[in-house]
Q: What sequence folds into this?
């Protein structure tokens, strides 16, 4: 059945693509707009029963199409108005230590392994410049850092664009 796991627990890309029919794309679109919708409200919006919608959403979750539901909190409201992006070029043998330090540092909200001269890209939040410096000092033990402070965010985090439904292509 489309979206069911293979014997190794993974979902094939062809099964995942079959899950992206017009109804499921509509469900994803509605959930993008408001991830807190109840299944009954979501069902009303797409013209289906709540159990059918629940089943479809659960299949999308099992297939990894829906990776989770998140809350978006303003860091400044939590006393962390300083946002920075940091590129790290680890010294020899320090690669795993940078990843571990990032996992263990609560101010780091994103850590990406990247290509190019640097190996890591971090995004972090801090209450002040001096506390940003303290966080950066943890990473200086493992290599060179390049830090940029975010002054504004003209494009905040947003949902991925959804593909056109198969019916739209006909």
A:
């Amino acid at each position: 059945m489309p979206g069911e796991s293979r014997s190794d627990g993974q979902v094939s890309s062809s099964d995942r693509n079959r899950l992206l029919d017009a109804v499921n794309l509509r469900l994803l679109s509605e959930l993008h707009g408001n991830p807190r919708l109840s299944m009954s409200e979501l069902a009303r919006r797409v013209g289906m029963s709540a159990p059918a919608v629940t089943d479809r959403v659960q299949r999308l979750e099992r297939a990894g199409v829906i990776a989770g539901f998140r809350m978006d909190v303003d860091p400044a409201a939590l006393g962390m108005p300083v946002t920075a992006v940091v590129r790290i070029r680890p010294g020899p043998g320090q690669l795993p230590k940078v990843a571990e330090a990032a996992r263990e540092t609560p101010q780091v909200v994103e850590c990406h392994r990247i290509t190019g001269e640097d190996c890591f890209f971090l995004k972090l939040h801090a209450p002040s410049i001096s506390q940003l410096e303290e966080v950066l000092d943890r990473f200086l033990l493992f290599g060179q850092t390049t830090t940029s402070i975010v002054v504004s965010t003209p494009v905040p985090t947003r949902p991925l664009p959804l593909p056109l439904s198969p019916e739209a292509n006909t």
Observations:
- Helices lie at 13-19, 22-33, 39-46, 50-62, 95-104, 129-140.
- Residues 1-8 have pLDDT under 50 and may be disordered.
- The chain has two domains: 13-70, 75-149.
